[in-house]
Design a protein that fits this description.
This protein is an alpha+beta fold. 18% of the residues lie in helices and 40% in strands.
């Protein structure tokens, strides 16, 4: 696959870019941090329901142009978080496909973002029929993940729960804010429908 850097176009209006193109998340940093985000387009890849749209990926870019962003990492069967503030206007986390992501409340743009995964719960329940409810592992996984986020972030937190997007899609979850203002949690949903072929399901605001 050949890639073309389109970071400059992305930085002109990141939210609009996410609405118009499929954007995969390829940053893999295991720890919370501030990162400089770049974007590359995949030559030859298509978005079937958006003529002219690009298929892209986000990566950690050290040179300009780039978009300063907070990074919330991911851990299989774990809980990871980062504290958002006013050093950047955007935040990103690892791709979401079965996980839950949450944003806590706060003042002056200082809020916690968290990413939780309890996949082992679904595996443990996959082949059981306890209480005559067969194969309810994914539902138990989601319930546990959402409960962990609410406990850590507070009852007024905003959640991207698996129940809101299902298991057939992948989310690129991000957050945006203005300096000193509350963060807003958003997610782009997409699906790979064939080799280098994708479907864009739009960007959802979570409130």
């Amino acid at each position: 696959m050949t890639y073309i850097d389109v970071t400059e176009k992305f930085c002109e209006n990141p939210e609009k870019f996410m609405e118009q193109n499929v954007v995969l998340q390829w940053i893999q940093d295991p720890e919370a941090s501030l990162v400089n985000v770049g974007v590359k387009a995949h030559v030859g890849a298509k978005v079937e329901n958006k003529p002219g749209a690009m298929v892209c990926h986000i990566y950690n870019k050290s040179s300009a142009p780039s978009l300063p962003s907070y990074w919330c990492p991911y851990q299989q069967n774990g809980f990871k978080s980062t504290m958002l503030g006013n050093e950047a206007l955007f935040a990103f986390t690892s791709p979401v496909n079965g996980c839950s992501v949450g944003l806590g409340s706060g003042k002056g743009g200082v809020q916690m973002m968290a990413h939780v995964n309890t996949a082992q719960v679904a595996l443990d329940w996959r082949d059981t029929d306890t209480f005559s409810i067969p194969h309810d592992g994914p539902d138990r996984q989601t319930t546990g993940q959402d409960a962990k986020l609410k406990k850590a972030l507070g009852k007024d937190s905003t959640l991207v729960s698996r129940r809101s997007y299902g298991m057939d899609k992948i989310l690129t979850v991000f957050a945006v804010h203005g300096l000193g203002l509350a963060w807003q949690l958003k997610a782009q949903a997409y699906k790979e429908v064939g080799k280098n072929r994708y479907h864009h399901y739009g960007v959802t605001d979570y409130v």
